[in-house]
Every structure is written in structure tokens, then in C-alpha cells.
Amino acid sequence: KVLTGVDDLQQVEALEMQVDTRENSLGSFGLHVPNLRELKLNNSLLVSVRDLGTTLSHLHILWMACCGLSDLDGISSCSSLKELYVAYNDISDLSQLTWLDHLEVLDLEGNNIEDINQMQYLRFCCKLSHLTVEGNPICLKPNAESAEEPDYNYRAEVKNLIPHLEYLDKIPASQT
Hints:
This is LRC56 protein. Pfam families: LRR_4. It comes from Centropus bengalensis (lesser coucal). There is one protein chain. The chain is mainly beta. It has a single domain, classed as Leucine-rich repeat, LRR (right-handed beta-alpha superhelix) (Alpha-Beta Horseshoe). The protein contains 2 helices and 8 strands, in the order βαβββββαββ. The chain has an 8-stranded mixed beta sheet, with helices on one face. The protein is elongated, with a radius of gyration of 17 Å.
């Protein structure tokens, strides 16, 4: 109530805060704000997405940029997500995103995605239209083992793996 400035938490649809989940658990947080649609946790310290608990299934937009995340394990409990912003973390595995059927916008800028094949998990997000991956190792070479290849074009590779994508790094995906 202090954070939102309202007495009736049913009215809260958007909230911005910084948390350190080593000190404060958010496990049942969603039960208190059942109509929350947008949650901004940028610059928080989240050990794991699991620290958000399983009660945020009604969220549509989630910001967790610069939160120290190394994986997205537990993101499937946010099953209604349409937009996910997790830029500038240490994420390398995208397999958990396959469960997000409503995802339309995904920002993965500045993470640690080293294998272009991680993009194949995003083809299961059939509504995904906007993807940002600039600043990841895959923009330079297809995987950690390969040398930088002058003919390598990550935009063409991503478009091939996610054919329904409309925008890649804020440019029409058709422009490879």
C-alpha cells in the first residue's frame, strides 16, 4: 500500500519498484495485486525469476533489465506475458520462453546468448513480432566454438529460425 499509494490494491494495474530477493521474497506478491498488468523491476537484484513466485500469471508486461539474472527458469508462471524486457542480464538459455504463448515483444539486448540455435526456442512463441538481441555474442558469430566468419549474418539466421518475426533490433526483420 505504501508503494502504490492506494488503499484498495485491487485497483493497482501498474507498479514500479526495486527489490533484493535475497532480503524480500515476492512469493505471494501477485495475490495482493490481482489486477496488476505491468511490473517494472529494473535494477533490482533477482537471484532467479522463481523469486517472483507463481502468482503473477495475469501480468502482461514485465521489465527486469539489469537484475543480475543468469537464467529465465520460472518465467512460465507468468503465462499471460505479452512483453518481456530482460536486457543487460547474463541470460544464455532461452528454452524457458517456449511456454509464453502470448509473447509479442522480447528484449534480450546485452545478454550472453552464445549459440544461434537458442533462437529456435522462440519459434514456439507464435505471436512474437519484436525481438532485440543486439549486444549478444550471437551477433558476431554463431556459437562460442566458431571463429568469427566474414559471411556470417545473424539477422538472416534469426529470421530463418523465427520466420514470423516482424522486427529484429528495431529494424524490419525482412532486411537481412
